[in-house]
Amino acid sequence: MADENVAILYRMILPDHTCPFGVRAKEMLEEAGFEVDDRILSSREEVDAFEEEQGVDTTPQVFIDGERIGGSDDLERYLAA
User: Signal peptide: which range, if any (predicted)?
Assistant: First the structure.
């Protein structure tokens, strides 16, 4: 049984750069009462491989209940709905 209050967040934290959109997405999820499964992409290679695998151009990417919600703007719309 899937736990509907768990969100999977893939976000980029590189040695010289923490993605501000990933930080924002994590904050929004926590404020909305989600437990965040925070999956850090810590190299450019990991980020590129993830984006290619998912068919997306950006991180972060949020998944709730097995469904890809999208990035932080998509998440904001999802939570507002």
Answer: none
Report the domain count for the chain: 1
Q: Report the b/e string of 13-33 with b at 16+ CB within 10 A.
A: beeeeebebbebbbebbeeee
What is the pTM (predicted TM-score) of this model? 0.91
* Residues 68, 15: Cα–Cα separation, whole Å: 27
* CATH number of the domain encompassing residue 27: 3.40.30.10
